[in-house]
Amino acid sequence: MDLAVECYALTKGLPKEEVFGLTSQIRRAAASVPANIAEGYGRDSAGQYVNFLRTAQGSLKELETHLLLSGRIGFIGERSVEDMLDRSESVGKMLRGLIRSIQRSTHPTAEARLPTADAVEGRKK
Is this model's pTM higher than 0.85 or not? Predict the structure, then answer.
């Protein structure tokens, strides 16, 4: 949510003729990230949640692209672009970590499913 709020503040300074262009695209992509996280959380399964988290990752990449473009054409200063990309990278790391955590909890590794030596010995007796 913080990243989206920061994007809204940043785009206030974009040219008025960009209100239906980059301003709208940046805001939409930024708002899409927490919206997809929330929607996925409300779903019935971990698999659906992970799919929505991946959609949030896609929106994050879209946001990064719009920020880079805005910087290249001079609408946003280089330092502001770098700061926003750093924030975006941090959100991306959190999303990747959450996805891995959910996948580990719903798909244990083969090693975790193997019986322990004590269990095997108990069955032989």
Answer: no
